[in-house]
Design goal:
The complex is a heterodimer of chains A (203) and B (328). Chain A has 203 residues and is mainly alpha-helical. Chain A has eight helices and no strands. Chain B has 328 residues and is mostly helical. The chains are: A mainly alpha (203), B mainly alpha (328).
Chain lengths: 203, 328
């Protein structure tokens, strides 16, 4: 189990570095997916299979699909890479990198000094145990999170609705990336078709 | 032989089981490509492929020869890494899910206690096959197919998880063997009928089968996300789809129809029989239903299936609390 832990931890770190250093946005997203799966493997190795499975389902399976969906449609090319190169000058990232390095050093020193031996491969936490904890001592946290999500849901629904309403008497050429209703989707599809065809022509 | 200990024997038997199940899954997928066309022919009042061999059973061989010897062409405008990766994801994620299905009391690959969640995870990863395949092809039809796939995924994945939570609540476990054991007296299709209906819809959507095949919709998108694929890479998408059908059928049997339970016949026969019926149902759906418009599919998912699963889960929870012993 220790080997599994360290292997997947190394994969997670390398993949995350790939996300940060990658020039190509979709390749960076693939690294991010690999990194999330590696973190899930870390959870498995630590004896928390429920958390590991949820990590894959929620992050790798649902949230990253949204990310890939959006980035796929942006059609980023060489121009975007050049822009990023222009923004990412040495003076821009040197300061934050040094500060983060100091934090990493502090973390490492703390971890080396602390007694963490023998934690890997201990007991395995079942889904039932996690549920009992969530709805027992941590009930108030769960409910607060639920309220927060509900608020986000109501806000998103409100924003989507007003735009869909405007759209019914707006010009049809204005494409909308909203997925609130079928008409918005059809319009954005049309717009996307036009985009790619013009791109194709220029090629 | 001193090294042939009971432990080694157990490992060897487990490996043998895993191999047999893997080969059977792929074989069933390949066989289905022919069976489906024959069944479609039967239901649409025409002949299917019936020229090669008796009743056309050798059609698979002919198809395989064709697929394997076709030029495996990667378009110069495609993103190579993703283009090669996508079919591998399509096939591997679905084949891995067979791991959790208990076939008979003694057969099955892994006995995970997060069994069902493993399937959700693999179904989540399976989406990337379509997304990456469509994006990397550098073709607008393929991209449109991939876009539809991701929008469709977001709408069915939520209620797919919720539709099975009633089963999990009644069995008290994510473990597939415990779910089968909990159906000793009554199959879950009776108390969880709405869960069954919604999971059926979601299961079809997972496999991108008719009527949820908007991502490939051949009339509008000329085959959608795999339009640029040829040879065995296309073959892996193709076989992967049928492996998905077998997988979802086997899952439905395990979760709602009592798995291997049944009178008189041995367990393996019951399991295969029930799975075959569901596979036939999948083909019948394709023969019978037109393809709905694509926004209609999404609003069906969000406005009908999602509330239905939520109400089902609420009622299931309430009934379990009422009938469970106090303080239990």
């Amino acid at each position: 189990m220790e080997i599994a832990f360290y292997l997947s931890a190394v994969v997670a770190v390398l993949a995350t570095l790939g996300v940060v250093t990658g020039r190509h946005p979709v390749h960076a997203l693939l690294y991010l997916i690999v990194s999330l799966i590696a973190v899930a493997m870390v959870f498995f190795a630590l004896g928390a299979p429920f958390a590991g499975a949820l990590e894959i389902i929620v992050y790798a399976g649902a949230i990253m699909v949204l990310f890939v969906f959006v980035v796929m449609m942006l059609n980023l090319g060489e121009a975007a890479a050049q822009q990023e190169r222009a923004w990412l000058r040495l003076s821009t990232w040197l300061g934050p990198a040094i500060l983060s390095g100091v934090l990493l050093l502090v973390l490492l020193v703390t971890l080396i000094g602390a007694d963490v031996g023998g934690r890997i491969g201990g007991e395995t936490l079942t889904a039932k145990a996690v549920g009992t904890l969530l709805f027992g001592p941590y009930l108030i946290v769960v409910e607060l999170a639920a309220m927060l999500l509900l608020a986000a849901l109501v806000a998103a629904s409100h924003l989507g609705r007003s735009e869909a309403h405007d759209e019914s008497h707006a010009v049809r050429q204005v494409p909308s990336k909203r997925t609130a209703d079928g008409r918005g989707r059809a319009a954005s599809e049309r717009a996307l078709g036009d985009d790619t065809s013009s791109e194709e022509n220029s090629r | 032989m001193s090294w042939w200990t009971p432990q080694v024997e157990a490992i060897a038997f487990a490996l043998f089981q895993a191999l047999v199940i893997l080969i059977a899954a792929v074989g069933a997928g390949a066989l289905l490509t022919m069976v489906e066309r024959r069944l479609l022919g039967l239901w649409q009042d025409r002949y299917g492929p019936n020229r090669v061999g008796p009743f056309g059973v050798l059609q698979i061989l002919a198809d395989m020869l064709k697929i394997l010897f076709k030029e495996d062409w990667i378009p110069p405008f495609a993103d190579r890494t993703f283009f090669v990766l996508a079919p591998a994801i399509a096939m591997a994620s679905l084949l891995l899910s067979f791991m959790i299905i208990p076939i008979t009391p003694s057969w099955g690959v892994a006995d995970l206690h997060i069994g069902l969640l493993f399937f959700f995870a693999m179904a989540g990863i399976n989406v990337y096959a379509v997304l990456f395949g469509g994006w990397s092809s550098g073709n607008k039809y393929a991209l449109l197919g991939a876009m539809r796939a991701s929008a469709q995924t977001l709408s069915y994945e939520v209620f797919m998880g919720l539709s099975l939570m009633g089963v999990v609540a009644m069995a008290g476990s994510f473990n597939m063997r415990e779910i089968v054991a909990a159906q000793d007296t009554i199959w879950f299709i009776v108390p969880q009928f709405f869960g069954f209906c919604t999971f059926l819809v979601a299961g079809i959507a997972v496999t991108h089968r008719h009527p949820f095949d908007q991502p490939e919709a051949e009339q509008e998108l000329a085959d959608g996300y795999h339009v640029e694929y040829s040879g065995m890479k296309w073959g892996m998408f193709f076989i992967g789809e049928y492996v998905g059908i077998v997988l979802v059928s086997a899952l439905m049997v395990t979760l709602f129809l009592g798995g291997w339970h049944g009178p008189w016949l041995p367990p393996i026969v019951w399991f295969l029989l029930k799975t075959t019926i569901f596979v036939g149902f999948f083909v019948l759906l394709r023969a019978a239903l037109p393809r709905p418009r694509y926004d209609a599919v999404m609003s069906f998912g969000w406005k009908i299936c999602l509330p239905l699963t939520l109400i089902n889960l609420l009622l299931t929870g309430a009934l379990i609390l009422i009938f469970s012993p106090a303080g239990g």
